[in-house]
Amino acid sequence: MKRRIGIGIVVLSLLLSLFATPVYAAYELPPDKEAALTAQSALVVFLGSDMPRDMVMYEKNPDARMAPGGMVRVMVGLYALKTLEDQKIDPAVATGTYTEELYDLIAGQDLETAGMQYGDVWRVEDLLYMGVMCTAADAVGALSVALAGSHDKFVEGMNALAAEIGCTDTHFRNVFGLDHAEQYTTARDMYRILRYANLHMPQLCDILGTTEYTPKPVVGEADTWTTANLMLRPSSEFYYAPLVYGRTGNSGTDGRAAVSVARDGGFEFLTVVMGCKSAPASEPAEGEGKTPAEGEGETPAVAEEGLALVDTTLLFRWVYNNVSYETVVSRYQPITRVGVELAWNTDSIPLVAASDLEGMLRAETKVSALRYEVAIDESLLSESGKLVAPLEAGQICGKATVYDGDDVIGTVELCVAETVTRSQVLAILSAVWGVLTNPFVLILFAVLVALFIGYIVMTVTHNNRRRRKNRQKVKRYR
């Protein structure tokens, strides 16, 4: 029984982590950087210890559906590794064969291949690296057939896994990254897919971060290949040292895309950019002059293939240079004071943070300028809005939400700073007062007072009448 309960808790925790949403502290890019961003859709997320602790730092149309291009290989790798794990397949032993049917799937599509020939047999491990790390369409096709029996069945599995992860605007039709009306995803869903891998399938992150690989086919010839992600190549003009892993994509309809994870100063951020296109060239209006000569301050043009990489670097540099991760609230830090009842020498008591709270702050924000919104547990408050003694030090009695301007940094529980004992005298007086102020007692008291006053009035009236009668008797006998 205990074992079943334990398994249930693990499954529930996994489900909660899959469908959890990150905290929002979405900041605005400076105007110059916003203007330089070519991506039609973008997302920057700080990666915490798990998804509920992630924090969205920037977003731009994150739910716009677009063609993923080669970014589809992230899901290909994720589903392949999950299949290997579920079916207990050794990728270094299992193999896949390149066939004429696979050739028909990619023929005429202008896709990069590893040069596989009919009958070539490669280890699944090699197919995985060449298909995901690189852009070898023949390798990724052979991988899909080797693990699912057919390309279409493999794609069905990808779609099922995407739904299981929590993707709401994603659908795939092929493993190659070819444009199709039914092949689309969003920046937010790409975050979910890569974040799932980050938390549950680190082998995929290793593959996406590999810069060079030499397959060892069982039958066939192969050469050493380098990663398709130029941001990982030190010799490339797009090289970005903090980048840990990622995948690029290219769509003929929606432009360039990339999903990436960088680590610097011990902190990780994930960015997604999609729909990166060059602005159409326009002729200068008459009288506006010519383009500045070389060296006069013009911004060099970026080739179409580098747009997503430049956008990714821009977003990473912005977030690392303008946002810091630090302790914004320390444990036992006083947050507010609350009145206390039934304590002899204490009218109020400080509430302190029950734990440290860490979060992202803009560079210009000072911790002392943060704003707190306090909510006390109403079940612990008296009618006058005060806590009631006795109170134990460390007793949780509410929470405080911390704001940087209008942006939520996080929430921390509040606890009582010190033990407060109850005064029995005040407790008795309070009980008596409670009885006396009871509406029924007040009505009864009012009735008694009215009767007492009536009695006095009647007595006085009666006595007055008697005195008048007595005076009349005296006059009569004189």
What portion of residues belong to β-strands? 15-25%
Question: What is the mean predicted local confidence, pLDDT?
Answer: 85
**CATH class value of the largest domain:** Alpha Beta
Report the radius of gyration as a whole number of Å: 37 Å
CATH topology of the largest domain: Beta-lactamase
Termini, distance in Å? 110 Å
Count the E strands: 18
Q: What summary fits the major beta sheet? A: 6 strands, mixed
The global form is elongated
CATH architecture of the largest domain: 3-Layer(aba) Sandwich
**Tally the helices: what do you get?**
12
Number of domains: 3
Give the helix/strand class: alpha+beta
CATH homologous superfamily classification of the largest domain? DD-peptidase/beta-lactamase superfamily
Fraction in helix: 25-40%
Spatial strand arrangement across the major sheet: 1-3-2-10-9-8
Poorly predicted segments = 1-19, 281-300
Order of helix and strand elements from N to C terminus: HEHEEHEHEHHHHHEEEEEHEEEEEEEEHH
